């Protein structure tokens, strides 16, 4: 079931997306009674998916420092609409018109030209380019599990955050990703235009006949290889374009990818976005919040110790609580000037990092995890760090649980964002209306860009709650 919600506050348009997984027997309907009946009967259906519902919401705080659609053209127009918020899910049939190799090679060629030529802002009335979407998601017919005859997609932007979700009811898998860009949107745009396709190509080389543990490790290896390929391609493009745009060497992004396939929930992360699991497994009352990935920041003592051990006896590696005085993150995509001397040399004056003794100072080694979903696992929260500036893992889980109990057919991700804005306004001594009138850019004084996805796990958690409260 596709859903779309628009809210307008003093001229600012926010869009959230939602998706109800109804299994292989689902059919589109515009009849409210039919939809209600379908919702009640979800738990009776044979559903291949491990999740029953996906919801997402996002809010902008930052002015975009660069407006380069890094994969402009074939991929970029489909994945990066001008409307600065996530779009609703859209059913996308596969097309054999282009091979994956054609897509990647074309996008990489366009990267170089578009990095050098920053395009003007796009109009807010631009809609999805469905031709580009079909090309991007055109899987070849093989035995790989990410190949499907039909997928459903959502994607969009909030300030420097980028978000993607791709689902196949047919094959029972879900891919979600949040790219939290910094110092500009170029790195996050690049990830939105290439990482999913890299992952799909790598995963579809796997053989399903492997033993269970071996197969899981192979999936994790494929995720890491896809990230490495994207990083190499991005930094290569930056090197080619840095004469015209030296600022590109300082632009980077956090990466959080979640892949749900069967009972296995895989995560890959760089930076400080978080994947939180809400589970009742092993406890008697309520839900426990389990963070599935590490926080790659100087503020994390474990990560700080690892970073210092990688640069022994070198003074000035941490200055003012930041890596070389520039970045709190210890692992991130892009940010080439903290990884390669020649990229640092492209910067002028005080922008250049002095005494680059033992680069790289920012790692691209991701945190990887696989979790087998159990009956006690209720939902997952995937969010950029803007959410956790205001709520702990436990508070976020409690808010989602409260919302689901009281509004079983609503959007818990949007509720989290609403609660964040209310708390930000209160902390600043403003009313909600006053905060919402603050333009993007100045809003960064009160809250960061925030993107949230909530995945309801299992087929019965939400519907059982809904029937209880009717």
Give a structural overview.
The protein is an alpha+beta fold and 470 residues long. It has helices at 32-40, 76-79, 100-116, 130-136, 186-203, 212-241, 301-310, 341-344, 385-388, 393-406, 412-427, 432-436, 461-468, and strands spanning 2-9, 12-20, 51-59, 90-93, 150-158, 161-168, 173-182, 252-261, 264-270, 274-279, 288-291, 318-319, 322-323, 333-334, 367-372, 377-383, 450-457. It folds into 2 domains: 2-293 and 366-468, PPM-type phosphatase domain (Phosphatase 2c, domain 1, 4-Layer Sandwich); 297-330 and 340-361, no CATH class. The strands form 3 sheets. Strands 4, 5, 6, 7, 8, 9, 14 and 15 form an 8-stranded antiparallel β-sheet that branches. The protein has a 7-stranded antiparallel β-sheet with strand order 1-2-3-17-16-10-11. Strands 12-13 form a two-stranded antiparallel sheet. Strand 1 and strand 2 form a beta hairpin. It is globular. The chain starts with a strand and ends with a helix. The model is unreliable at 1-15, 23-47, 65-87, 94-143 and 462-470 (pLDDT under 50). One of its GO terms (molecular function) is protein serine/threonine phosphatase activity. Keywords: Hydrolase, Protein phosphatase. Its EC number is 3.1.3.16.
């Amino acid at each position: 079931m596709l859903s779309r919600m628009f809210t307008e506050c003093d001229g600012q348009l926010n869009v959230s997306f939602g998706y109800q997984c109804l299994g292989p027997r689902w059919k589109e309907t515009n009849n409210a009674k039919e939809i209600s009946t379908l919702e009640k009967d979800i738990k009776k259906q044979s559903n291949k998916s491990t999740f029953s519902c996906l919801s997402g919401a996002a809010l902008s705080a930052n002015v975009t420092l660069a407006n380069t659609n890094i994969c402009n053209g074939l991929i970029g127009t489909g994945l990066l609409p001008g409307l600065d918020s996530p779009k609703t899910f859209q059913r996308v049939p596969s097309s054999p018109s282009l091979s994956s190799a054609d897509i990647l090679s074309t996008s990489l060629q366009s990267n170089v030209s578009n990095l050098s030529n920053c395009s003007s802002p796009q109009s807010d009335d631009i809609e999805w380019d469905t031709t580009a979407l079909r090309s991007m998601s055109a899987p070849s017919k093989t035995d790989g599990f990410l190949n499907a005859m039909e997928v459903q997609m959502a994607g969009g932007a909030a300030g420097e955050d980028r978000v993607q979700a791709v689902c196949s009811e047919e094959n029972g898998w879900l891919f979600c990703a949040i790219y939290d860009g910094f110092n500009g949107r170029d790195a996050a745009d690049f990830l939105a235009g290439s990482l999913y396709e890299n992952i799909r190509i790598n995963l579809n080389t796997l053989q399903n006949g492997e033993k269970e543990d071996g197969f899981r490790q192979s999936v994790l290896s494929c995720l890491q290889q896809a990230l490495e390929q994207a990083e190499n391609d991005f930094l290569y493009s930056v090197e080619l374009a840095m004469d015209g745009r030296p600022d590109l060497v300082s632009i980077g992004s956090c990466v959080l990818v979640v892949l749900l396939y069967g009972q296995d929930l895989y995560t890959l992360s760089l930076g400080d976005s978080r994947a939180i699991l809400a589970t009742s497994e092993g406890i008697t009352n309520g839900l426990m919040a389990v963070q599935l990935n590490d926080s790659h920041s100087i503020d994390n003592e474990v990560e700080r110790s690892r970073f210092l051990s990688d640069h022994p006896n070198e003074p000035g590696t941490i200055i003012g609580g930041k890596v070389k005085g520039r970045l709190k993150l210890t692992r991130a995509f892009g940010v080439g000037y903290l990884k390669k001397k020649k990229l640092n040399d492209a910067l002028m004056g005080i922008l250049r990092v002095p005494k680059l003794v033992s680069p790289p100072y920012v790692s691209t080694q991701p945190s990887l995890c696989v979790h087998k979903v159990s009956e006690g696992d209720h939902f997952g929260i995937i969010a950029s760090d803007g959410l956790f500036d205001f709520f702990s893992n436990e508070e976020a889980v409690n808010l989602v649980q409260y919302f689901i109990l009281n509004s079983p057919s609503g959007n818990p991700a949007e509720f989290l964002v609403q609660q964040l804005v209310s708390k930000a306004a209160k902390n600043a001594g403003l009313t909600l209306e006053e905060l919402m009138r603050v333009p993007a850019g100045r809003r960064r004084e009160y809250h960061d860009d925030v993107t949230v996805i909530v995945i309801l796990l299992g087929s019965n958690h939400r519907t059982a709650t809904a029937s209880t409260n009717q």
